[in-house]
Every structure is written in C-alpha cells, then in structure tokens.
Amino acid sequence: MDQPQGRLIRLRARADARPAPAEALLAALPTPMLLIDHEGVILDANVAAETLLNLSRTAVIGMMVEDAIGHSLTSVPSDTPFVAYDQEITLPGHRNQRADIMSAPLPEWRGWRVVTIHAHPSAAPIARRGVQAGGALTAAGAAALLAHEIKNPMSGIRGAAQLLEANVDAEAQSLTRLIRDEVDRVTALIDRMEGFTDTRPLEIGPQNIHAILEHAKAVAIRGFGDNIVFRESYDPSLPAILGHRDSLVQVLINLLKNASEAIGDKGGTVTLTTAYRHGVRVVTGSGDGRRSLPIEVCVIDDGPGAPPEIAEHLFDPFVSSKRAGRGLGLALVEKMIADQGGMVEYAREGSPERTVFRLLLPRASKK
Q1: What is the pLDDT of residues 194-220, one digit of tens each?
Q2: 107 and 131, same domain (yes or no)
Q3: What DSSP designation does 186 have?
Q4: Is the pLDDT of residue 36 over 80?
Q5: Which residues form the domain of 250?
C-alpha cells in the first residue's frame, strides 16, 4: 500500500471513530443561521447568528424573527425554499444592514425552516473612496501648484526675517520670530501636501497583509499607542493581496494614529481584522469593467467617531475634526489605496457604535 493511500485510510478511520456531531458543525458555520417555526418564533441560532445580532443564543431563542431581522417571513410558504437578495434588514439596536436572506424547509418538522443571513461587507459606509481616486487627483494638482508657487518664496521670506532679527530691538525680534514660525508652519503643510504630487504608478506585487499589519502595529506600540490595547481577529487562510508594501504600511500607521488620537489619553481598544468577502466588486476608473476587491482589512476603535457634519467628507483634503489637524492624512490614505486599485470606507457600526475604517483590496493572481 503506497503512503498516500495509507494516510487516507487512517484519516477515514479517525473520522469514523469520532464523527463530528451535527450541532458542532452548525455552530462552527461562519454564516448566521436561525431555526424558526411556522409562527416565526426563533427556536435555535448558531454562533455566527449571535455575533450578527449581538445577542446570546439564550436571548435569541424565543424572539420573533421579525424582531431579530426586521422581516417576518410568515408571508412566504413554509414548505417552499425562498431567497431574497440585497434586502435591508434591521438588527437589534436599530442597526440597518444589507443582506441576502435564504430560507429552506425542514420536511420532517412541518412548518419549521432554516434561515441563513448573508450580510454584505458593510452596512452603510458613511464615507467611501477609492478606485477612481475621487478628489485625490484634484488635490494632487492643487498640491503641485502650491508647492511650486508658495514653497520657494517662503524660503526667501524666512531668510529675510532672520536678517532683520539681527538688526532690530527685542520687541521687534518677537515679530520676526513670529514670521519665521509661521513660515515654518506653512512649509511643513506644503511638505505634507507634496505626497499628492507623485502620480507615478506604484510597483505593486503579492504581499502578506498580516505581516504588514504586524509591522504597522509594532510601529504604533513603540510610537504613539502605549495607551492602546490592540486586538486581532485575522483570517489566516487569506491569500496574498496585490499591493505596494511601503504604501500599505504608511496607510495603516496613519489609521492607527488616527484611532489612537480619537481614543485619547483615557486609553481604549483598537481591533484589527481581516476577512475574505466573496462577490465584492467595483466599477473600474475607466468604467469598462469591474474589479474584484475580496480582501477586507478593518481598523476599529472605540472612540467617538467624526462629527456628523464632516463625516461624509472625511477623505476630502483640508477636512479635519482635530483642532490642530490639517485634513491631509485621510486624503493621502485615499490616494495610496486608490493607486493600488483598492477602496477605503468609513463607518460607525455595532452596538455600542465603534469607528470602522475598512480597506477593500485586490488579491494577487493565482499562479
């Protein structure tokens, strides 16, 4: 008997000796699943359903399915399979989300049905940018113009202020120092804007997103995240993404720094997640096709989120909720992600609500 055949027989013998119970298989399914009777009362739920509803199994059992997902399903014959795509469901806590609902009868239990809920990757992103780069190209043109027209004269103004400072009294010197400080501030702003002016295509290739996440987290811990508890929820089976390593590291450091500043000195939790999302496609910038973006990376914090009046414009240049902010960090994040064919979203999700920055990225081609 050859070695592979012998190994297969041993594996089959092990499975026959201790078969996995059906309850364990259902509990491990990543798809939310509910068992309901003919009146729409929930009789059972798996772990994924608990996570989606943000309720324990004990709390879910006995609920009406309409109270759980906002759809009664009683108008659909219980002995007929049923599918409804792209429905808006209302979860406990008044959370709205798009999802596909599928229902199948249990023939041996009259009126009972199994309902599966395939939630879409994002309930309702408040702000979304990428692929076509949105306002990033406009910002790039503005940055190039400002860098050329303003930065060079600024160095002359600063030099003149230094010469004046050596020949004026102490009271006037405070004014020349003010001139120098303001010139330095404007120059620093222009330096940051110059990140938009480089329109050369990035050299992208296969990347391990988890290695990039760990590198960015290590930088955050040593730099600005000493009051942050980092948690990870990774899908270890993810394939390689198609991207530019250094740009992705910079994007994640920017998002982690934003999360740290949003949480503040009191401290809090930042959660990093990865997942594979089937069927996530976006129209390409040229409009001649669709690009698959199945790799999802989330940076989630328990800070207060952006003020509602600017939330829809977070990725626009010069929009910031920070007192000393310049409004360029997220605009640069958008540009870097768009340059790699990806998308970035901002949303407030969960109960209690948390801030979610979601990156949707292409996967590397299979060899």
Answers
A1: 655 566 677 889 999 999 999 999 888
A2: no
A3: H
A4: yes
A5: 127-137+197-361
Short-list 119, 138, 113, CA closest to 69 = 119
Residues whose CB is less than 8 angstroms from the CB of residue 350 and which lie 6 or more positions away in sequence, other chains included:
54, 95
Strand arrangement, sheet containing 268-276: 127-130, 343-349, 354-361, 295-301, 268-276, 228-233
Looking at the structure, do residues 216 and 347 belong to the same domain, yes or no?
Answer: yes
Percent of the chain with pLDDT over 70: 75
Strand (E) positions, 63-198? 82-91, 95-105, 113-119, 127-130
Terminal-residue alpha carbon distance, the chain: 33
- DSSP-assigned letter for residue 213: H
Structure token digits, residue 27: 């509990």
Q: Which residues pair with 230 in a beta bridge?
A: 270
Best CA proximity match to 113, nearest among 121, 102, 123: 102
| Residues 132 and 104 placed together within one structural domain of the fold | no
pLDDT tens digits, 172-188: 888 888 788 878 877 77
Query: What DSSP string describes 277-289?
Result: -TT-EEE-TTSSS
